[in-house]
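INFO worker-7 received task bundle
INFO bundle size: 2
INFO processing item 0
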Amino acid sequence: MDVAKGFGSAVFWGVCDSFKGFYILFRLDKELNKRRLSRLSPTHSSSPIRRRQSESREQTPSRTLQKHEESTVMSRVFQCGLLNGAIFLLSILLFEYAFLPTMKRVILLIFGKDSPNAQSVWFWVELILTITFQTIWVVPLFAISKFINNLWFQDIGQSAYKYSRGRSNASLSLSKTVADFIFSTVVETLFLIQALVMTYSPIYYLGYGLYLIHLCLLYSLYAFEYKWGEMGWEIHKRLTCIETHWPYFIGFGLPLVLLTQISNSWIINGCIFSMLFPLYIISANEANPAVESCSRIKIFSPVIALSNTLFSLIGKEKKIQIHRPAAPRR
């Protein structure tokens, strides 16, 4: 009974914490800009000379702040919504539910509803239009949006961390940072494949439930990575935290998972994810995982073992190539 109560409480607080970014967003920029303005004020200058210099610049601190240091989290979130929602998602919806049905009506009107050639003509027209639309518009815009979104997400994550915790504590070297990024990317990709494997369970509802649990943990890991990266946590420490407080992270990622399961199209679900994910980054910086009585589950162990095996094989192959004796000259 106590275990069930602890599990339910952790999931509940995880769901509640996932919505923190929605109301913190409206005061985050204001608070960060206020802190920066306070550092520019003459009262923070210790020496008389610096105080006089600050007083001489007192009339233009807000203009300087606006040009160089102004926090733009609100505008970044708005840009994510504009790019992924108003441009990308809306164009797909208009194409699927407005343009294609209109073209179908036109073809049926030309050939007649009872014509045997109407369906055949529409099949090829729909195929050509869909391939053209995806090739010229969807694929390039998807690639561009993924790159731009990552830049915006990083900017939002850094600003949210400064708002909640101050200066970054990251102390990893560049080589370790790159290695950690590559390894975490491989682990997360394999974990997503592991989630998809769950859907092939002979018991549909069990497999789909495990699939959703995997996605909840993965989405939570995505959101908390920006915070933990600023704290200097490596991938193994991040995964240990997820596995230890897994009920909380299931609750934290649950709303986003449910919202991204609305459509059967992974592109539409990806647009919804990109629109809402910035708010989850902010929520993760404000959240503190609840301590529950459930034991740790090593759900990432299979993908970690597989990732270690892949990297060890790559390392051995490189060593073989380096130490391979040169062929004798003839």
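INFO item 0 finished
INFO processing item 1
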Amino acid sequence: MVADILSLLTNYRRLSLGKTINYTIFVLLLTFTLTLSDNSHSAARTHSKPNYNPYERTPPPSCGSCKNLEDVKARSIEMIKEQILRKIGMKKAPNITGRVLPQIPLHELAMIDQGLAEMQSDQPEFKPGISVTEEEDDDHAKTEKMFIFSQKHPRLRHSRKDHDILYFPLLDSTTKYNVANSSLFIYIEGHDRHPLPEIHVEIFKVLKLPNHPETSKLQRVVSTTIEQPYGKGSWIPFDLTETVSEWFKNTRENHGFVVKAELDGKQIAITDPSGPDKGKIPYLEVTPQQPKSRTRRSSGLNCDETSNQNLCCRYPLTVKFEEIGFDFILAPKSYEAFYCHGECPYLTLQKNAHTHIATMASPNSVQPCCTPRKMRNITMIYFDLHLNVVVSNLPGMVVDRCGCS
């Protein structure tokens, strides 16, 4: 082919003006055809070893290789497991088997359950046919709230040996946020007498002494008077947003708190993390600041397993966390993830201008795939590696719309 082109160029001067123009056009078209063919072969070599990922926004060329719905389900669940661990910053699921787990206070559980119920009530009902959804562009987990339980400080001691240091371990994955507000919840023992006595509560920030790495001093950050709870006792919150914000910016300053709440010389605040009252361990409730996100409306096709539909469609898929070995997730116990499956024939490509043009320019290229085009978030409550309870909003975990790409 190249030799023919060279021969044409050699005889170029012998041609008349009209024939010269015709031959020039012919040579240009022939050169373009060769270039397009080389690009097609190069693209085929690039995609010779696909890595199937049902939740990639740009799908791999082998998406049509899996025809069975059960196989697509299995692959989708494995990908969901990988997505969850990646988005919450873990390499593998925490092993909580046989470990003593902190008990979440009942009032916090009630708030979490209410929030999950409201979230699920806002989800559109799944119906076969055309659906309209809103799309978010962000693809990172948005932590909405954290509950960090106190532990004994591994190294420090202070001069007041009759009071415990409440240490709250912070992970790098959580301190990347700014703190909107934070409260220290302390369980104060109650009494059934009237009138209820007033209690003076002091909270001290622990500071490490520079010349004595294993000792510390105290700096008061809260001094207030409260009425002793009636009955067995109750949780009392104390605003510590300023101090916790400083810790998030510089974790080396995090050495914990000391709480002093005494009545008649007796400490009535439960502060021993290793004591018998596991359900009354002091904890920090931290609400991080979140950036704003943009949304846009889009539409797609819904199907169920009884639908006689070969085109690209969204199918229901229920993920049960205990069944897939993710028992470190406290809530929800399961959720509807959905998945995409179906064919992308030529007529459907015309709805996507970019895919349509690319297919016409290179007809021998790989067939477009049915893949998620719109993902939605889920709220999840789970134990982290330190057995702190974290409430996070994970993006891209629910398929809202499928399409050919």
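INFO item 1 finished
INFO post-check item 1: The radius of gyration is 31 Å.
INFO post-check item 1: Confidence is low (pLDDT under 50) at residues 12-21, 23-62, 348-365.
INFO worker-7 idle
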